[in-house]
Amino acid sequence: MSELKLHDLRCFDAVASQGSFQAAAVALNRSHPSVFAAVARLEHVLKLTLLDRSGYRVSLTEAGALFHARARLMLRELDQLHGYADQLASGEETILRVVLGDVCPRPCALRLLGRFFARHNRTRLHLEYETINGPLERLLEGDADLILHRADPSDPRLERIDLCTVEFVPVVAPGFLSLAPGLAITPEQMQPYTQCVIRDTARQPSPDSYFLVEGSQRCSVPDHQMKKELILHRLAWGHLPAWLIAEELKDGRLLAIAGEHLPGRVETVAAIRRRDRSHGPVAEALWQHLRAQPASITRDF
Predict the structure, then answer these.
(1) In three state form, how does the secondary structure of the chain look?
(2) What would the CATH number be for the domain defined by 6-90?
(3) So what's the pLDDT on residue 93?
(4) Predicted model pTM
(5) For the domain bounded by 95-164+268-299, which CATH number is listed?
């Protein structure tokens, strides 16, 4: 098998795909005799008859069909390897690491990223989800190229592009409270009820307190979708992003209890990267893509 030649494999693949030596020769921009000789040489090396030449058009033998299926896989992998080498030589990143934070409207962010990576499909998107202080920790520790989350706009280590705002609304399921839902509910009145919170994925949790009612019983979940399910099943109450619960608020499956004493909150979602590190061409292209259409996420609602 040491005599197996890539040229011969490509000629065989072209004949099998095109259905004739002449068509294969045209596709490969080679002469008919050279393609014929290459396939004959391959059959000699393999000691297999790959093509049935007895009919008007050549066709694959049973062994030829089986061999062609494996050969096509190998040729495809080889082409990908060449593309990978070209990418390395050009300086393009092979992987771009993006972290979605719990504040970010996930469906809309995925559509935004999908449009970009459809045009940059040689770079693989490595996407992760982190909560609270997790996204920023990943970015600052060098484990992410870009995060879509909230961040302190005064932090000199960070560069940001504001994308959209997300309203967080305190909600309960009907029948969860023994008191009547209204705008005058106080945190003290909510103390007897279990409050659902998102767990911080950072190794060094944030000292900030997001919506917590002091003295209340708490349960924790990994993300807002699970938090929504718990609230719908009357296991707890909590703050949820308005984009996630629009239908439930509309049809009455959830009730907003925001008011003077128990306010909601508006967060700004931004694309964030570090100022103090260089960014590859694909990462820079993604940054410019986000900068060019800062309303992309909100338009998708």
Answers:
(1) CCCCCHHHHHHHHHHHHHCCHHHHHHHHCCCHHHHHHHHHHHHHHHCCCCEECCCCCCEECHHHHHHHHHHHHHHHHHHHHHHHHHHHHHCCCCEEEEEEECCCCHHHHHHHHHHHHCCCCCCEEEEEEECCCHHHHHHHCCCCCEEEECCCCCCCCEEEEEEEEEEEEEEECCCCCCCCCCCCCCHHHHCCCCEEEECCCCCCCCCCCCCCCCCCCEEEECCHHHHHHHHHCCCCEEEEEHHHCHHHHHHCCCEECCCCCCCCEEEEEEEEEECCCCCCHHHHHHHHHHHHCCCHHHHCC
(2) 1.10.10.10
(3) 78
(4) 0.68
(5) 3.40.190.10
